[in-house]
Amino acid sequence: MFNYIFGLFSYDMGIDLGTASVLVYIKGKNVVLKEPSVVAMDKETKRVLAIGIDAKKMLGKTPANIVAVRPLRNGVIADFAATEKMIRYFIKKVHNKRAFLHPRVVIGVPSGITEVERRAVRESAEQAGAREVYLIDEPMAAAIGAGIPIQDPEGTMIVDIGGGTTEVAVISLGGMVVAKSLDVAGDKMDEAIVQYFRRKYNLAIGENSAESVKMQIGSVFPLDQEITMDVKGRDLLTGLPKTVTMSSEEVRIALEDPIRKIVEVVKSVLEETPAELSADIVDKGIILSGGGSLVKGLPELLSQETELPVNRADDPVTCVVRGTGAYLEELDNIKKSKKKNI
């Protein structure tokens, strides 16, 4: 009853607290915010100058007294103070100005993080103004957001490739039967592209440029028609600006190492999956979610490597946050069910 009354005066929210982006779901309003997980701060005073979109524009472009950082690395908090300020900013940005109470918050977290790291996420949200904080493993949230009937007695495999982590899980009867978390995902792909430019072209490019290359011409499987893109950076030999033309074939070479590691962890989870659930996966295939899954040719490559059907979820980028939202909508029923079972 109290939570119902409180809900009339506050907007409860689900948050996908990702390494690359933060997405926010508001109860009854769907996904209302998607911004980069970047904070720009003054080095000396520690004063926050920008958060989100405005801060990402500063990456690699700040003067000596300003630093633009990602407070989360590999799906966990690397800078507690910056994370707390970032969460507070996003809560204030989407919360109803007329609301009198702090919101309840559901946050998606990597399945492989420690209890200490989970406590850090919970405390950062509480410090940022959350009334109650609930954590849900990202593979479970992604599966819910992808529309997978997780309570069914059938095995379903979800591969969620975010910015900092790749989460692979086999889900049945509302739980994760096998789950593995890998700290190789979208960010490592960007780093691989940066290193390729340095080795091949003696060209220094920034994170934003590498991400653009990945999303525009990146592929991990041969395309019917290969594509190219002009990329600007700084010549490491002369120090002068320089432009090179890169092809999708070259991006495949650049991405070989991170993609190989992702394929290996998928195979590892399949090898540990009980036989009965494996039979279900043969029929239902693998579901891909997360922004990293948008790289061209990834479903085809995984299908070739596993000999299983592989499909992207609808709107894979928002699967986790939609899953936190669905959990949020059922939160009162979940709490009632737990009380009955005590």
Describe the overall structure.
The protein has 342 residues and is α+β, with helices and mostly antiparallel strands. It folds into three domains: 2-141 and 319-341, Nucleotidyltransferase, domain 5, CATH 3.30.420.40; 150-184 and 257-313, ATPase, nucleotide binding domain (Nucleotidyltransferase, domain 5), CATH 3.30.420.40; 186-254, ATPase, substrate binding domain, subdomain 4 (Actin, Chain A, domain 4), CATH 3.90.640.10. It is 40% helix and 27% strand. The protein has 13 helices and 18 strands. It has helices at 2-7, 53-56, 80-94, 115-127, 138-145, 186-201, 207-217, 248-254, 256-272, 275-284, 298-306, 319-329, 331-341, and strands at residues 13-17, 21-26, 30-36, 39-42, 48-51, 66-69, 72-73, 76-77, 104-109, 132-137, 156-161, 166-172, 175-182, 203-204, 228-235, 241-247, 286-289, 310-312. The strands form five sheets. Strands 3-2-1-9-10 form a five-stranded mixed beta sheet, with helices on both faces. A hairpin with a 4-residue loop joins strand 11 (156-161) and strand 12. Helix 5 crosses helix 12 and helix 6 (186-201) crosses helix 7. It is flat. The two termini are 20 Å apart. The model is unreliable at 1-9 (pLDDT under 50).
Note the overall shape. flat
Low-pLDDT runs of 5+ residues are: 1-9
Please give the alpha-carbon distance between the first and last residues: 20 Å
Q: Radius of gyration, Cα only, in angstroms?
A: 21 Å
CATH architecture of the largest domain: 2-Layer Sandwich
What count of helical segments does DSSP give?
A: 13
CATH class of the largest domain: Alpha Beta
- Please tell me the total number of domains: 3
Name the CATH superfamily classification of the largest domain: ATPase, nucleotide binding domain
Fraction of residues in β-strands: 25-35%
Query: Strand tally, please?
Result: 18
Proportion in helices: 40-55%
In CATH, the topology of the largest domain is named Nucleotidyltransferase, domain 5
- Secondary structural class: alpha+beta
Give the averaged pLDDT, no decimals: 89
Write out the strand line-up for the largest beta sheet, numbering strands in chain order.
Answer: 3-2-1-9-10
* Biggest sheet character: 5 strands, mixed
